[in-house]
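Supplementary Note 3. Input sequence used for the single-chain structure prediction.
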Amino acid sequence: MNESKQINRNAVRQEVPTDPETGKPYINTVAAVAIAPSGVGAELSEYVSQAVAVIRDSGLPNETNAMFTNIEGDLDDVLRVVRDATMKLAEQGYRTGVTLKLDIRPGFSGQLAEKPQLVNELLSK
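The predicted structure, written as discrete structure tokens, is reproduced below.
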């Protein structure tokens, strides 16, 4: 959404773009989420991978690292995907823990790539 005009990254407030398809405000969100069951033993990968599969199948930009899966999109879409991924385990009867951090930044998009790029540029100076 921020490709059409230059955005001041240091501004406290940004103009909120409208989704042309829905007419609703587009509230860009980057989420870091970890979803895992309790009481299933020491190795959680089998279960975590089920939640990650739901996130990957969502169509939203995402990346998985050692601790979290990051997701980017409109706030409503991101929260829906987190819910769906959580339900993948909860519907199997597992007590499921969710750690969620949201960076809600209207007017921006593509932050999964831009944020690390900005840090790398600053470090290279």
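The mean pLDDT is 93. The longest helix spans residues 75-90.
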